[in-house]
Design brief:
Number of helices: 4
Shape: rod-shaped
Largest sheet: none
Low-confidence stretches: none
Number of strands: 0
Distance between the termini: 54 Å
Oligomer: single chain
Structural class: mainly alpha
Order of helices and strands: HHHH
Length: 110
């Protein structure tokens, strides 16, 4: 499965700089939405991307309720591990059933 190239289009440094620009310039604009609308083209990203970055930065900083980035990464790792364990269990169940059937099909020794 190929990853979408757009998923990592912006470096973490670019994201951090964009978020910092929004927070630093909030006083120059009537509200956060206007600041984001003005700053997004300067960074070269969409307004929605910048809005999500700002919201996640607020969550990570404790100013907003939600799942922090570290927690989100941990959840993602745990979900991957659960998926792999379920696949391994399914393989083991099939192998167990196969060998059990082979044991039943074997002629008895007398």
């Amino acid at each position: 499965m190929e990853r979408d190239n757009r998923a990592n289009r912006y470096t973490p440094e670019t994201r951090d700089r964009a978020v910092r620009m929004v927070f630093d310039n909030l006083g120059s604009y009537p509200d956060r939405a206007t600041a984001i609308r003005a700053i997004a083209p300067k960074i070269g990203c969409s307004r929605e991307s910048l809005r999500r970055w700002v919201a996640q930065a607020e969550t990570d900083g404790g100013a907003r309720e939600g799942v922090r980035s570290e927690e989100r990464a941990r959840i993602k790792d745990l979900e991957r591990e659960v998926r792999e364990l379920r696949q391994a269990n399914e393989i083991l169940k099939k192998a167990s059933a196969y060998f059990a059937q082979a044991e039943l099909d074997r002629p008895l020794k007398r």
